[in-house]
Amino acid sequence: MSTELSNRSTPGEKQDPEKEVTAAVGNIIEIPDGGYGWFVCAGVFFLNFGTWAANSGYSIYLANYLKNDRFSDAGRLDYAAIGGLAFGSGLVMGPLVRVLLRVSGIRTVIAAGALLQFTGTILAAFSTKLWEVYLTQGVMIGIGMGMICIPGTTLLAQWFRKKRSTAQALSAAGSGVGGVVFNLAVESMIKHLSLRWALIIQSIICAVCNVIGVVLIRPRDKHIQISMKVWEFKMFSYPGYWLMLFYISTTLLGYVVILYSMSDFTISLGYSSHQGSVVACMVSVGIIFGRPAVGKLCDMFGTITAGIFAQLVVAIFCWAMWIPARNLATAIVFSLIAGGLMGTIWVSLPAIGARVVGLRKLDVAMSMAWCFIGAFGMVSPIIGLQLRSSPPQGQSHSPLQYRDPAIYCGMVYFASSMTLWVLRGYLIARDKEAKQLGSHVDNEEADLPVSISNTLKGMFSLSEERKV
């Protein structure tokens, strides 16, 4: 059947839709699965150290802003909005970054982003007005991070296939290693030096890491012949892509809340700001050990299968451990578990994207997906702080302040887990269709039709073709 369908039509002849699908999925894409790819993995590790790790340190700045009321005209939602802008203002500009990549190349874009991040952090150190902090610690740092992270995310998918999730997890651990450094160091620098010097030193560390990352990375765009489109509306006709976007949205709505809340949550239990920084640091420690472990499980059992259980465990622990937490030990254990599992999206997303739309369209699919990552990442901390209650009158803290955020995070992570379960069923059903057409791995299989009934059957089936 596949031989017959792969024959090309003659000029003027109406093309059979099945022939178009087969032509799209027929070419083999060679992947080294190692070699220089490990240096690229190290480069992305340093880029994550200088961006996501530094961003996780905002939880310390946020706790400091909330405690000391640094700007008289600022409310708690202002500080949450600044954190949201730092996380998502650059990511939401994914298509624009894609345009810059087409014009100037990946190293130039990342270098420009590193310069913007450095400048924004330095200027934030000397900001004295709220709008200046919005512009520097929010928008400038956020856009700089976006210009670094967006090009770097899909690099490893070009170098690895069988070890894709493992390589992605090892590089993602950079945000955990750096998070330990930034969460502990920032609190100590604020206490012994000043908030200004904490930002200045952070800017230098980030700049060094970003330079190392730029030197090590190397794309394989020409070999893979990736799509250079900035936006492709056809993506929205793929059910698998919509499921991926819903997975992104629900995860980000909870991820940033947990990431930014652990320090202030610990203070709400009656502990010191130093103890709050230790708990926030445990999130990063969890990332160091959790993400490589999750990556290995993804390669063993399938990226989506491992992701289902990781997201579900986070939901359960939000309800079962975060809500009743009343002491430092419980807060530390929860942060370790949540840190190791809540960021599974950074390990799995490129691999999921490659499975859903294929390697050649992965970059344009991610370009569009960054808009969702950025948008939901920006509103997430605002939702979290809005749900945070105030302590009873006459008291400075209360263990119930984070009850509602904990319930909320559990709900969105549960929704994320269920979305992955449906996506798993969809891909298992689609793989059966692809086998009949003689498709090769990670090619453009998104056009293959999959019925709802086959998707439901796939949710309760084991994959017969390849790991999902």
UniProtKB/TrEMBL annotation:
Its main location: membrane. Keywords: Membrane, Transmembrane, Transmembrane helix. Gene3D superfamilies: MFS general substrate transporter like domains (1.20.1250.20). One of its GO terms (molecular function) is transmembrane transporter activity. This is MFS general substrate transporter. InterPro entries: MFS (IPR011701), MFS_trans_sf (IPR036259), Proton-linked_MCT (IPR050327). Belongs to the major facilitator superfamily. Monocarboxylate porter (TC 2.A.1.13) family.
